Amino acid sequence: RTVPGELKWAASPSEGGWEEVSIMDEKNIPIRTYQVCNVLEPNQNNWLRTDWIPRSGAQRVYVEVKFTLRDCNSLPGVTGTCKETFNLYYHESNEDRESYIKENSFIKVDTVAADESFTQVDVGDRIMKLNTEVRDVKVTTRKGFYLAFQDVGACIALVSVRVFYKTCPLTVRNLATFPDTITGADTSSLVEVRGSCVNQSEEREEPKMYCGADGEWLVPIGGCLCNPGYEEKGGACKACSAGFYKAKSTDPGCAKCPPHSHSLRDGATVCDCHSGFFRADSDPPSMACTQPPSAPQQLISVVNETSVVLEWAPPHRLGGRSDTSYSLECLICQTGSHGHTGVRALPRNHSIAGLKTTRVVVSELRAHTHYTFIVHARNGVSQASGAGAAQSVSVSVTTNQATPSPVSFIQATDVTRHSLSLSWQQPDRPNGVILEYEVKFYEKDQRERSYRIMRTFSRSVDVTGLNPLTVYVFHVRARTAAGYGEFSTPFEFSTNSGGASTVKQSRTQRRRNILTQVLHKNIRTHGCCFSFSSFRSTCTSYMHTAKRHLHNICSYTTISHPPLHPSFSSLVSSPALASPTVAGVKIYVDPFTYEDPDQAIHEFAKEIDVSCIHIEKVIGMGEFGEVCSGRLRAQGKREIYVAIKSLKAGYSDKQRRDFLSEASIMGQFDHPNIIRLEGVVTRCKPLMIITEYMENGSLDAFLRKHDGQFTVIQLVGMLRGIASGMKYLSDMNYVHRDLAARNILVNSNLVCKVSDFGLSRVLEDDPEAAYTTRVRHIPIRWTAPEAIAYRKFTTASDVWSYGIVMWEVVSYGERPYWDMNNQDVIKAIEEGYRLPAPMDCPVVLHQLMLDCWERDRAERPTFSQILNMLDKLIRNPGTLQVCVSVIPEMCVPEWSLCEWLQSIGLERYRDTLAAAGYTSLDSLLALTHQ
Ligand code: AMP
């Protein structure tokens, strides 16, 4: 219609068929038409073909044809040859210059008939009944296409042919822009289109919409949210104005700045505090700015012998917050000194900071000593407001006279048929000059019905006139000018039958003295110190303990409702602590009993689609390949962080089986202290095992990194978790065989979980393995003697390993048995040597370790007993405060070498050592094997 000149479409036949004719339209404007009107001749087949039409990305095109058609009845004299329809064809082609019409290659779109026909041509009246017909056709295979009109004997004039396609127009929905989009190929097809967030907005959920075949947008999904500092207005994101802020994209809109804060510029994400006001890191931006508290008020002290009760009132001004806490500092001033020039004497245990109560009892102070206590008040913004901002109040007190504390342990140095030689250490707190010791003893069978008393000025006594082969009970107490202290707990020793001089002691006693005995024995038998290099570290730690002991003169206990340490309170509320012993627990199934390993894996582990896993970084190296961290978004679940172990390429069948066996084992467990299996990827390579992600990695490395940074309660909390996991495993009849701190993982809440399953069973069941081979593979330092000697792996051997883990934890990741070699470790264990208590280790914990290391496995505690014991300790943190003092003074520098040798009964070596140049304890620490 719009082409002014000749169209020159191809026609066939080129003459006598379709012809290009100019006519006048109803408005008398000349237009081009193609006409044909061979109604009188039979067998018409006249083709008219358009020029090549480029497709331009369209997949379905619409053809709108306007034409006029004569009614056959109106034509005088026509016979049956007259038709009232024509056919529309198309042909897809990359070729834009096809010269002639290849009829066979055209495909029929439709037969088109007129809605309106006209019976007579009355050009004078310009009666033209124009028909408009639209047809659509899918064109997807070539760059373009041709259309053709086939006439079979009608009288037609084509007036206009319009070819077009449809798009869904550019639009913005849910703050996402969707571009102008061409519709799909089929009438029912929906084209999925991803939107892009408008300026200053971010994706909330992937914005998507469907473009329908008719060019209409359907079903918007997801969308974007205005960035922090911006809010939605009329489909765009506009900056918050001054005085307003928006912190998170999910906040509904800009909000007014909270009290004591302001924003000066547009687009604020947070309001700044007015000067003198602060916000803590954990305060939400919607919270008012606050101030630190004023000082605590009315601090009063009541002295009771060597304890002081301190009580105070809360600060007058709380600064607009409710998180006031107190910390206590103790300055000790030696009697006779002036002013507050004393030593700061806060214990390492920080639980004294963060007090919520306003009453504290400080006990076990020195008698007759002047102390100054300072109580600081702080809240969440004390730190932000500057270091000196903690407000404080102080009080000075002088403690009263007090009797000595009890003697903590007694040892027998010589035993005969009728006598016992005993020695002991000075009480931890003598509270004055010790004038004498009183020794009370009686035959065990007699109880205290008849006892004898001996007094001595020294720290040893020879008790004679005893009956042979009889067990005696001894108590010792010290006396100062303030009177007698309390008696020690009972210590039992037995006289012998008169043979060699042996020391028969109670079990506890025996254990406590093992360290001294081994040292003793080795010096005697080998003439040199047994593995002295290992003792060097023990000894050094004793020196530290002793030094610290001197500094930590103040120890604190809170009364009534002691504030729980955060990790402690979470422990108490953990479901595992409260859960009863489950009756009829599930029993673990060994995946190696399945002939087909894939059957086991699919029974116990969920197959995960690899597209749900997003790997982020490498975090470690496992037995079979890299371990990575990443995210898992399972369908219908929220995204979680995971660890991903993969099996490196080129693996053997056996390696595949071993790799997947860990998942088959793990998948059977469900416990808060066992690493949780999320699933496996076995359907594509590399094979993967997906587990929950443990932010702090393995326990040994974690402890080494944070040496000395946890409270005893926190350490016991970790041990409790491990014991709880092990109890669960043992209830399921699963023996771990490789329990060690390196195989425990720690998450961000310090929760410890047992991991690494399936490695060691392979060692045990390999009948080919020779003794020496096995010894090389077995983690000797962690393994019970019966498991090393004859592969007797049981829950009781796991208990032994647990004892070693306890030692690793309390010593912050020290290597068990230090640099001793494996053979020496096996030999030392055989001879009765056990690891000594690590630095700062509460006696009860070391005792529990020693119980786990009983030679006779039937005598070791069960995990259930260990768990009960640890729960008791957690509930009574007081029991954890006492430190092992096996030989605490042994390495205090003030001690002479001579005194120390004497204290362990080896003074006869004094001259030999002196001759070799060892005259002080310090020099002895440098002693090597050589
Ligand atoms: P494994 O093969 O289990 O010994 O893993 C090797 C190392 O990867 C471990 O020592 C950890 O440091 C790290 N790792 C393994 N599993 C996890 C996990 N679930 N979360 C965090 N780190 C892990």
From TrEMBL:
<keyword id="KW-0325">Glycoprotein</keyword>
<dbReference type="Pfam" id="PF00536">
    <property type="entry name" value="SAM_1"/>
</dbReference>
<keyword id="KW-0472">Membrane</keyword>
<dbReference type="InterPro" id="IPR001426">
    <property type="entry name" value="Tyr_kinase_rcpt_V_CS"/>
</dbReference>
<dbReference type="InterPro" id="IPR020635">
    <property type="entry name" value="Tyr_kinase_cat_dom"/>
</dbReference>
<feature type="domain" description="Protein kinase">
    <location>
        <begin position="613"/>
        <end position="874"/>
    </location>
</feature>
<keyword id="KW-0675">Receptor</keyword>
<dbReference type="InterPro" id="IPR017441">
    <property type="entry name" value="Protein_kinase_ATP_BS"/>
</dbReference>
<protein>
    <recommendedName>
        <fullName>receptor protein-tyrosine kinase</fullName>
        <ecNumber>2.7.10.1</ecNumber>
    </recommendedName>
</protein>
<feature type="domain" description="SAM">
    <location>
        <begin position="896"/>
        <end position="930"/>
    </location>
</feature>
<keyword id="KW-0967">Endosome</keyword>
<keyword id="KW-0808">Transferase</keyword>
<keyword id="KW-0677">Repeat</keyword>
<dbReference type="InterPro" id="IPR013761">
    <property type="entry name" value="SAM/pointed_sf"/>
</dbReference>
<feature type="active site" description="Proton acceptor">
    <location>
        <position position="738"/>
    </location>
</feature>
<dbReference type="Pfam" id="PF07714">
    <property type="entry name" value="PK_Tyr_Ser-Thr"/>
</dbReference>
<dbReference type="InterPro" id="IPR016257">
    <property type="entry name" value="Tyr_kinase_ephrin_rcpt"/>
</dbReference>
<dbReference type="Pfam" id="PF14575">
    <property type="entry name" value="EphA2_TM"/>
</dbReference>
<dbReference type="Pfam" id="PF01404">
    <property type="entry name" value="Ephrin_lbd"/>
</dbReference>
<keyword id="KW-1015">Disulfide bond</keyword>
<dbReference type="Pfam" id="PF00041">
    <property type="entry name" value="fn3"/>
</dbReference>
<dbReference type="GO" id="GO:0007411">
    <property type="term" value="P:axon guidance"/>
</dbReference>
<dbReference type="InterPro" id="IPR036116">
    <property type="entry name" value="FN3_sf"/>
</dbReference>
<dbReference type="Pfam" id="PF25599">
    <property type="entry name" value="Ephrin_CRD"/>
</dbReference>
<keyword id="KW-0829">Tyrosine-protein kinase</keyword>
<dbReference type="InterPro" id="IPR008979">
    <property type="entry name" value="Galactose-bd-like_sf"/>
</dbReference>
<dbReference type="InterPro" id="IPR003961">
    <property type="entry name" value="FN3_dom"/>
</dbReference>
<dbReference type="InterPro" id="IPR008266">
    <property type="entry name" value="Tyr_kinase_AS"/>
</dbReference>
<feature type="domain" description="Fibronectin type-III">
    <location>
        <begin position="406"/>
        <end position="498"/>
    </location>
</feature>
<dbReference type="InterPro" id="IPR000719">
    <property type="entry name" value="Prot_kinase_dom"/>
</dbReference>
<feature type="domain" description="Eph LBD">
    <location>
        <begin position="1"/>
        <end position="173"/>
    </location>
</feature>
<keyword id="KW-0732">Signal</keyword>
<dbReference type="GO" id="GO:0005769">
    <property type="term" value="C:early endosome"/>
</dbReference>
<dbReference type="GO" id="GO:0005524">
    <property type="term" value="F:ATP binding"/>
</dbReference>
<dbReference type="InterPro" id="IPR050449">
    <property type="entry name" value="Ephrin_rcpt_TKs"/>
</dbReference>
<keyword id="KW-0067">ATP-binding</keyword>
<dbReference type="InterPro" id="IPR009030">
    <property type="entry name" value="Growth_fac_rcpt_cys_sf"/>
</dbReference>
<dbReference type="InterPro" id="IPR013783">
    <property type="entry name" value="Ig-like_fold"/>
</dbReference>
<feature type="disulfide bond">
    <location>
        <begin position="72"/>
        <end position="82"/>
    </location>
</feature>
<feature type="binding site">
    <location>
        <position position="645"/>
    </location>
    <ligand>
        <name>ATP</name>
    </ligand>
</feature>
<dbReference type="GO" id="GO:0005886">
    <property type="term" value="C:plasma membrane"/>
</dbReference>
<dbReference type="InterPro" id="IPR001245">
    <property type="entry name" value="Ser-Thr/Tyr_kinase_cat_dom"/>
</dbReference>
